[in-house]
Amino acid sequence: MSAVIKSLHPDEKVKAGKLGSSxxxxxxxxxxxxxxxxxxxxxxxxxxxNSGHVSKWARFLxxxxxxxxxxxxxxxxxxxxxxxxxxxxGRWSTVVRRIAEAVSCAFPIVFIAGLGFIIPLLxxxxxxYYWNHPDAADPGLNHHxxxxxGWLSPGFFAVRYVIYAVMFxxxxxxxxxxxxxxxxxxxxxxxxxxxxxxxxxxxxxAVATCMVAFDILxxxxxxxxxxxxxxxxxxxxxxxxxxxxALLVLGIQRTGRLTRSVNADxxxxxxxxxxxxxxxxxxxxxxxxxxxxxxxxxxxxxxYKYRLFGEWQWxxxxxxxxxxxxxxxxxxxxxxxxxxxxxxxxxxxxxxxxWLDLYWNVMPSYDWLEVSNGAQTLNAGPLxxxxxxxxxxxxxxxxxxxxxxxxxxxxxxxxxxxxxxxxVKDPTxxxxxxxxxx
Amino acid sequence: xxxHDEHHESPASEPVSENGELYGVLAEYDTPGELIEAAxxxxxxxxxxxxxxxxxxxxxxxxxxxxxxxxxPLLVFGGGFAGACGGILLQWWCNAxxxxxxxxxxxxxxxxxxxxxxxxxxxLLAVFTSFFGMWILNKLPQVWHPFFRLERFGRVSDDAxxxxxxxxxxxxxxxxxxxxLKDAGALEVERCYFEADPARRTMPKWITALIVSSTxxxxxxxxxxxxxxxxxxxxxxxxxFPDMDFQxxxxxxxxxxxxxxxxxxxxxxxGTIARGSLNADDLxxxxxxxxxxxxxxxxxxxxxxxxxxxxxxxxxxxxxIYCSPCHGFDGRGNGAIPQRVAASGGAWAARNLVAxxxxxGGHVIKMPNGQLFNTISNGxxxxxxxxxxLPHADRWAIVLYIRALQxxxxxxFDEVPTEQRENMPAVQAPTPAPAxxxxxxxxxxxxxxxxxxxxxxxxxxxxx
Lengths: 438, 464
Description:
The structure holds 2 protein chains of 2 kinds. Chain A is mostly helical. Helices cover 69% and strands 0% of the residues of chain A. Chain A has one domain. Chain A has helices at residues 19-44, 58-87, 94-104, 107-122, 139-142, 154-185, 188-217, 229-254, 264-295, 298-308, 312-331, 334-338, 340-362, 368-372, 374-379, 396-416, 429-433. In chain A, helix 2 packs parallel to helix 16 (396-416) and helix 9 (264-295) packs parallel to helix 13 (340-362). Chain B folds into 2 domains: 1-204, no CATH class; 309-425 and 446-459, Cytochrome Bc1 Complex, Chain D, domain 2. Chain B has helices at residues 32-44, 61-65, 72-98, 111-137, 176-183, 205-229, 242-245, 282-286, 309-327, 336-343, 363-366, 369-378, 392-409, 418-421, 445-459, and strands at 22-29, 50-53, 161-166, 188-193, 288-291, 294-297, 379-380, 383-384. Chain B starts with 21 loop residues before the first strand and ends in a 5-residue tail after the last helix. Chain A binds chain B through residues 1-4, 140, 286, 289-290, 293-294, 332, 334, 369, 373, 375-377, 379-382, 384-386, 388-389, 436, 438, and chain B through 32-33, 36, 40, 59-64, 73, 77, 112-113, 115-116, 324, 328-330, 335-336, 339, 436-440, 442-444, 446-451, 453-455.
C-alpha cells in the first residue's frame, strides 16, 4: 500500500485486445437503432407550427445539436485531463490517461457527426438557427442582430467549424500519438516534450472550447450574449468528461483488464474532479445569472425570462437541485467517491444532468418566440408577465437522438481502445500505481 | 536551544544519566520508504506514544503509524455550514428585519442577491475552521519539545527522517526499544533526556506575564467600546485633531455670522452673468413669450430647432431614458417605478401625460409648449427638474415627443396608416389606444402590440 513506487504487476492485463472492436460494434448498433428511430419519429410527425417552425425536422435538429454538444463536451473533458496531466506533471492519472486519450481521440467521429447539422445549415435550412432565418435580417424586427450576421452566416460558420475540428483533432491526436511512441521507446524526453507543448495547447484549447460554445450553443439565441458562457459550458463538459472516464475505467475493469493497476485511490481522484467541476459549473452558472439578474438589462434578462418563468422554471430548479446541490452534498464525502456503486450512480446522474444542462441552454430557443421576440419585448416596456406559452414539451426524439449520438461516441472511443491500455513505459507509471489519496 | 550544549554529549548507552529522566529515543532513517517500514514495525510491536518527523509530508505514513482518520473534514463542514447560515442570517437581519430600506421598490429580501455574501462567509468560516482546527488538532503551536535538545533533530527540516518513541509508552524498554529501531534499519539511535533542573522545565515567568498582560491590553478597546454602547454621556467628543474637525470654512446651507443675511450660501452677484450663460432668448431657454410687456408660456416652438422625424426620435430616446421610469413608455403614468410601488403594496402613479382633455390629468394635453418645457426644466410637485441632465434642445425634443405621444394615444383607428393597421391587435374597444407594456394581451400578440405602439407613435409624429 504505502510504497512510494510500484511496478506493473506481471499478471496485469494491459492489452486492449478485442475490447475496442466490441465497443465500436455495440456503439454502432446503438447509433443505428436510435438515430433510425429518431428519423422514423420525425418523418411520421408533423411540423410544430406553434413554435413557429415550418419544417418537421426542426425538433430533430435541435435535439441533434444538443446531443452533439454532449458528445463533443465529453471529448473536451477527456482532453482536459490529458493536457492537464502533462502540464502539471501529473502522477495519479498516468494509469487512466490512456483511456482519457482514447476518449479525446473520438474527436474525428464527433466532428463528422456534427456535419448532421452543418450540412443542412449550408443547404439553407432556416428552422435551426434563427440567424439563418430570413426574419433575422429584417431591420424593423431585429435591428440589433444585423451587425452580427456577418459572423453568424452559414459559410463562415462552417469554415469555423472546420477550424475547430482541425484544432481539436490535431491536439488530441498529437498527445495520444506521442504517448504511444513512448510505449515503444520508453524515452523520458517525450514526457518533457509533451509538458512543454501542453502549455500553449491549453491556451488554444481554452479559446477553441469557448468559441465552440459561443458559435454552436449561444448563437441559438443570437441576440443574447454572455461572456462567461464558454467557461460555463466547459465546466459542465468536464463534469461529463470525468463521469465518462470513471464509467469507462470501471467497465474495462469488469472485463478483467487493469484490475491491479487502478484502485479506489484513482477513482477517488476522478470523483474529486467530478465534484470540483460540479461546483465550478454552479459557480459560473450563478455568475452568469447573478450579473444579468442584478444588472436588469432587458436585452440580457430576456434569456432568463424564458427559463425562470412558466414551465421552464421547473427545469431550472431541477438543474439547481440535481446538477449542483444533491451531488455537491453527497460527492463531498470520501466514501461516495471510493465505493464503486456510489461512484457509478453519481457518474450516470451527472451525465444525465450534463445533458439536461445543454438541453436547458438550447431547447428554449426552439420556441421561435424566444429568439425573435427580444426586440419587440424590449420596445414594449417592462418585461413582466406573459410567459405562459413557454412549454418545455419534452419530445421522444430529444432522447433518442441523444442516445444515437452516444452510440457514435462509443464508436469513436472503441476505435482508439487498442494496444496498451496503460502507458507502460511512462516514467511516472510507478508513482501512479503506488498512488494514495488521503 | 539555549540550554542545549551542556547536555547533548551524554552517552547514548546509559538508560538513566545524571542529565535527568529519560524522555525517549530518536532513530534516524535514510529514506522516506525506510521510515514508513520502521513506523509499521513500531506500530505492530504495540507502541502508541511515538511520532515520525520528516522534512516533507510522506504519503502513506498515516496508515503505517496507525493514525486514525482526522475529524477535521467534519469540523470544516460544520464551519462552512455555520458560515452559510450566518451569512444568510446576517443579510436577512440587516436588510429585511432590522433596517428595511426601500430602494426603488426592490424587495428587501431576495435570495439571489444574498448568495455571493453567503458564499464568502461559507468559505471564510470553513477556511478558519480548517486552519485553526489543524493547529489545535496537531497541538500547535508547540514552542518547545524535548527532542529539540538533540542536534540531530535540527536536520528534520532539511534531510533527516526521524522516528521518536517516548519513554512513557507502556511497552517502552530502555534496551529493547532502541534495538527494535536499530533492527528496523535505523542509521543511528539516540537517547533524549529531560532537562535535569526542574526549574528550567517550565516556561519562564516573564513570558507568562507578557502573554497575560498583552492579552489583557488587547481587550481594552473592546471594553471601551462595550462601555460606550451601554452608557450615556453628556460630555463633548474628544477631538484628537481639532484643526481637521473644525476647519475655517463654511459648508453649504449653514449659518454664518460673516454676512448680513446670516447665510453661508452666496447667490450670484447682482448685475453679473457667468460667461456663456447669457441665454437671452427667452423662448428657447425658458419657454416664455413676451407680449405687451407681460410674459406668458409660448404656444410655438423655438425657431432654432427644425421639427423633423429625427428630432421626434431624439425626443423618444431621451423620453425613454429620463421620463419613462415614472411616466411609462406610453406616457400613461404607469412606468417601472409605479409598478414597483404597486408590487410592494403602495399606490402611486405618475401624471398621465396623454389623457384626453376631459379625463383626469387632461390638463397636460392643453398645456402650452413653454409650460411643458418649464416643467421638464424645473420640475413640478414631486418631480425634480431635469435641467442638469438635459440640454435645452433635448428638452424641446421631449416636448415634441410628448405631443406625438398625445396625438397617437388619442387617434381614432381610421387615422392609423393603413399599412400599420395589420400589426395592431384586434380592436374591439371603442377607444383604439395601442396597448403598452403594462398589460400585454395573451399569446404572441404581446410583442407585436408593443411594437406597433412605438412605431406608430414615432411615424405619426405631428408638428406641435
